[in-house]
Specification:
- The protein is an alpha/beta fold.
- The chain contains 15 helices and 13 strands.
- Strand 4, helix 4 and strand 5 (99-103) form a beta-alpha-beta unit.
- Helix 7 (197-208) packs across helix 12 (312-324) and helix 10 crosses helix 13 (327-342).
């Protein structure tokens, strides 16, 4: 079976899945990169040296070969291509051959934007016209299915998907946090939609209540100076460290040392791969239920805690719960690592995708997975109009 994945470029979040696909004996796997990665992303450490992986082809270097693979493969998966493959994508999706699209939300800033006549026409041309074709939607986020149901696309053909970065809890000792400071970690760009100020604010509360903890805030962005000043004014400089931006491998090292990971992004966060990474490293995660990854990955009270509607008060309550019941930190962390190890990982996603494709190609049968990647995507209600008015409702 020949499977070809087409996307803008391969990065460290996509690489584990691609390697898992390429390792399967029954699959000839290709990844077609349609553009070089931007210099800014390369500097952030997201780049992959494509020459290290024989399955990567660069469309801007061999367009004809890549076009033949896109049209001729048994299965073609389209990721984000910045419109560079729009015409060939139409040809493939209209062909009747098994195809997939990977998508995050199309109405992250509010489903009320779907009323635009121009926007509806464009979405109809991109999605609705394939509703009766063997084209399936891989939903990279829990609220994706709701957006696409709004435009009546992919009926019964929306499947759970996501990002599958590398992480593991090897060497972690799950134990009682009473005997040492509880280590807290936050990681991401320091921008409004990720609400890093929640981490500093809850550190003030923990400090005022006399809890023994340390906190690392990893990342850079326009809020860096404001956060540093708040830490200084609150007298937290000995316990709260702003590390600045770090390469992905270094971020993972810090996650492996953390007891608790805070994920505070709002509804504008399509997925949030740091959640996978922190869970896989065995940290107990307190996460915003508005971000795309969270309803897929976290079961509240089992492998983490979820706060609702971007509420700081609910966030603080859930963080305090872990400090008041610190035996739960190890319990949640271990269960989180098990979730990633056994279900939400690159190998599981690859094997389920191949199983699904074989069933369709050999028997004409569609059989979603029972849970996890390639299972049917439920329709979760996203943030409504009133909620979007409470935030700086701008993607950054």
């Amino acid at each position: 079976m020949v499977i070809t994945f087409v996307s803008n470029y391969i990065n460290h979040h996509q690489l584990p899945f691609c390697k898992a696909m390429a390792s399967l004996d029954e699959v000839e796997f290709n990844f077609i990169q349609v553009m070089p990665m931007e210099e800014k992303r390369l500097q952030m450490g997201w780049g992959v040296r494509t020459s290290d992986f024989p399955f990567v082809l660069e469309m801007y270097k061999d367009e004809e070969k890549c076009k033949d693979l896109i049209l001729g493969s048994d299965v073609t998966i389209f990721g984000w291509t910045e419109g560079l493959t729009a015409e060939i994508e139409k040809e493939r999706l209209s062909s009747g051959k098994l195809s997939f699209r990977v998508s995050e939300r199309i109405y992250r800033e509010g489903q009320w934007k779907a009323i635009s006549p121009k926007g509806l026409k464009k979405k109809r041309e991109e999605h609705y016209v394939y509703r009766k074709k063997p084209v399936f939607l891989l939903c990279a986020g829990a609220y994706v299915a709701s957006d696409f149901r709004l435009i009546h696309s992919y009926p019964g053909k929306m499947l759970k998907w996501g990002y599958f970065p590398e992480s593991d809890d090897e060497g972690r000792e799950y134990g009682n946090c009473n005997r040492r400071p509880i280590k807290i970690c936050w990681a991401g760009r320091l921008i409004d939609l990720k609400h890093p100020e929640y981490a500093v604010k809850v550190a003030e509360t923990l400090n005022n209540k006399g809890y023994d903890f340390t906190m690392e805030i990893i990342g850079d962005g326009r809020l860096s100076g404001t956060l540093a000043e708040r830490v200084r004014r609150a007298g937290l400089t000995s316990g709260v460290t702003l590390t600045g931006g770090l390469k992905p491998a270094r971020v993972l090292e810090h996650m492996k040392e953390a007891d608790v990971f805070l994920f505070t992004s709002n509804y504008l966060e399509g997925w949030g791969a740091v959640v996978n990474e922190a869970m896989g490293c065995g940290a107990a995660v307190v996460a915003s239920g508005e971000a795309g990854a969270v309803p897929f990955l976290i079961e509240h009270g089992y492998n983490g805690r979820i706060y609702r509607k971007g509420s700081y008060e609910d966030f603080e309550k859930n963080v305090l719960y872990l400090f008041e019941n610190n035996d739960k930190i190890a319990e949640y962390g271990k269960n989180a690592a098990d979730t990633i190890r056994n279900l939400w990982n690159a190998e599981k996603a690859a094997s389920e995708l191949v199983r699904f494709c074989k069933g369709y190609l050999e028997k004409g049968e569609v059989e979603p997975a029972a849970e996890g990647p390639m299972s049917l995507a439920e329709v979760y209600k996203p943030a409504g109009f009133a909620r979007t008015m409470q935030e700086r409702n701008v993607l950054e």
